[in-house]
Structure formats: C-alpha cells, structure tokens
Amino acid sequence: MKNLAYIDGQNLYMGTTMSDKPWKVDLAKFRIYLEKKYNVKEAYYFLGYVQDANQELYEEIQKAGFILVFRQHNPAMIGKKKGNVDSDIIFQVMKRLIKNPDFEHIILVSGDGDYKILIDFLLEEKRFKKILFPNKKFASSLYKVIGSAYFDYLENKDVKGKIS
C-alpha cells in the first residue's frame, strides 16, 4: 500500500531557512527521500496563496513531484495575513480517510502543534507513520508524548545530508 505525505510549505521553508544554521531543502531530493524512506506515492505541498512573483517556485515544487495545493483566500485579504494552511491539511487528510482511503499511512511535514489532535486520531486508527520536523527548536513540545518512533527531524545530519 502507498503512503501519503502532507507538507506545510511555509513551515518547511521557515524551519530550515530561519534555523540557527540556515539551509535549503532540495525539493527533488526531498521527494525522492519521502518515496524511498516512507513509500510516499503522493505528496501534497500546501502553500498560503498564489503570487505571480513566485511562479518559478511553484514550477520547481511541481517538477520535484509534489502536488501543489493553495489555500483559498478572499482576494481583499491576500498579502495581509499569513498562509496558515493547518486547517486545510487537516480537512484534506480527514476527507481522504472518509472518501478515498486507498492508502496505508500519513506522513506530515511541520513543526506546528496544531496537528496534534489529527495525529492522535490517526494513531488510534493505525494510519499514522511519522511527523517530520523541519527544525528541532521550533518543533511543538506537544509531540513528545507520541514517542520518538513517530517523529524525526529533517535537520538531523543523516536526513539533511540526503535532502539538502
């Protein structure tokens, strides 16, 4: 069976480029890593909203093999608030569980504590594999209770070496 990955794009970007030792994720290498390490067949990359100035970034994400998903915003609010895709990711995971459960496990990429209730539910249902934190410093302490078998850090030397 295939696994699915859901990536909070802003959290991934901020967690790596704003770390104590900033670094850049090579998206093509990251996509290969997700497939080889976690058997990820579909990887959804969530971003806040479309901006013409970021067209090259969007193309890079898609060329790397990610399915790009944008948050819907009222046009008047664009540029006035952050992307905040947490609820979109949670909704999409739950929708997939109900309407098209043709996968084995979910992998999340974020350090945000807002996903804790989703992860607890996925663990109950035996549908959760791992949360990958972009940055140890910004990883929510809420996840300590799920146990280290269910999380890893992208900045760990062995992981970073494969995806940077």
Protein described:
- With 164 residues, the protein is an alpha/beta fold.
- The protein has a single domain (3-163), classed as 5'-nuclease (Rossmann fold), CATH 3.40.50.1010.
- 37% of the residues lie in helices and 19% in strands.
- Strands 3-2-1-4-5-6 form a 6-stranded parallel sheet, with helices on both faces.
- The chain is globular and about 40 Å long.
- The two termini are 28 Å apart.
Mean pLDDT score = 92
Low-confidence segments: none
N- and C-termini, Cα separation: 28 Å
The strand order across the widest sheet is: 3-2-1-4-5-6
Q: What general form does the structure show?
A: globular
Roughly how much helix do the residues carry, as a percent range? 25-40%
Keywords:
single chain, 164 residues, alpha/beta, Rossmann fold, six-stranded parallel beta sheet, 6 strands, 37% helix, globular
How do the helices and strands line up, and which of them pair or pack?
Layout: E1 3-8, H1 9-17, H2 27-38, E2 40-47, H3 55-63, E3 67-70, H4 86-99, E4 106-109, H5 116-124, E5 128-133, E6 151-153, H6 157-163
Write a short abstract of this structure.
The protein has 164 residues and is an alpha/beta fold. 37% of the residues lie in helices and 19% in strands.
